Amino acid sequence: MPDAIAHYKILDRIGAGGLGEVYRARDTKLGRTVALRVLPDSLTGDRLQQLLEAARSTATLSHPNIAALFEIGEDGPARYLAFEFVPGEPLTAVIRGRALNLRRAVDFSIQLADALAEAEMHEIVHGDIRPDTIVITPKDRAKFLNFGLTDFTAGGTARRAANSASGSRSASAIAAYMSPEERSGGAPDARSDIFALGAVIYEMMTGRQAARGRPRSVPVPVSESSKGVPKDLDAIISKALATDVERRYQSAATLAAELRSVAAILDARAVEAEATFDPPRAGRRRGRPLVAAILLLAIAGLAFWIWQSGIWRLL
């Protein structure tokens, strides 16, 4: 492990992938921690230029739910990408085969849909949305990793293998989040990202994959497997997972807006439940002055009795 690359002090090794070794490093110029990806030496020629072009596009993205690409640089023969370091857990580890709290899952869904809407404005496709490429931070925010660089990651390689008869187990797992048009050999677009996000949303709500190894199957509605789920959410997920790309959401911004309507329904239910099980706060506020007045009158009466009886002289 190197001590430093350019102006980045290496702190520890995070791992490795299709984009090379990944280190946690300290930017000595700006004083921030980054995830430093050192590109493999084997990446040369046209392939390297394609990656650098994709990275320049990714660097234009600025959204709180997308891990930012800060710098594309080189130090001697080494080329690197300095990303925002995102602490937390992969969404896979957060789900662990169990449904998340409904309101929390809706919040994550809105955040991720907003991030896709931002990417749509820049005409950038993620291309590998699944729980493993989403991190939940200690502040309970969801962030996409590797945005726009799927063609060069291990996940991208596995997705390509998913369409072959010799696909590995990891490729089969990734296939659960691939849109039907991708599985038919088509290139992913913004609507493919929406399909993949729909599959992630379903998994957050139920703890189960939507496809369960059958990419063209229709998943059981969320409301049938989880109590308290508004029917509106079934319709949203069904539309996001539509097999026909033309029947799917055509914009992530629309998906985010409809998810916000579900959040409003859940918030209204919470307020109603609080009003049902708790004494009305307004009534409690009105009762406080009355209690205080009664206590004051009692104290005044006691004081008057003590004065009139002459007991105060004995005190």
Describe the structure.
With 315 residues, the chain is of the alpha+beta class. The protein folds into two domains: 4-84, Phosphorylase Kinase, domain 1, CATH 3.30.200.20; 89-272, Transferase(Phosphotransferase), domain 1 (Orthogonal Bundle), CATH 1.10.510. It has eleven helices and nine strands. The chain has helices spanning 45-58, 91-95, 102-121, 154-162, 169-175, 180-183, 190-206, 222-225, 231-240, 252-277, 281-309, and strands spanning 4-5, 8-17, 20-27, 32-38, 69-75, 78-84, 89-90, 134-136, 142-144. Strand 5 and strand 6 (78-84) form a beta hairpin. The longest helix is centred in the C-terminal third of the chain and has 29 residues, at 281-309. It is globular and about 70 Å long.
Key descriptive features of the protein:
9 strands, 3-stranded antiparallel β-sheet, alpha+beta, Phosphorylase Kinase, domain 1, 46% helix, Transferase(Phosphotransferase), domain 1, 2 domains, 11 helices, 315 residues
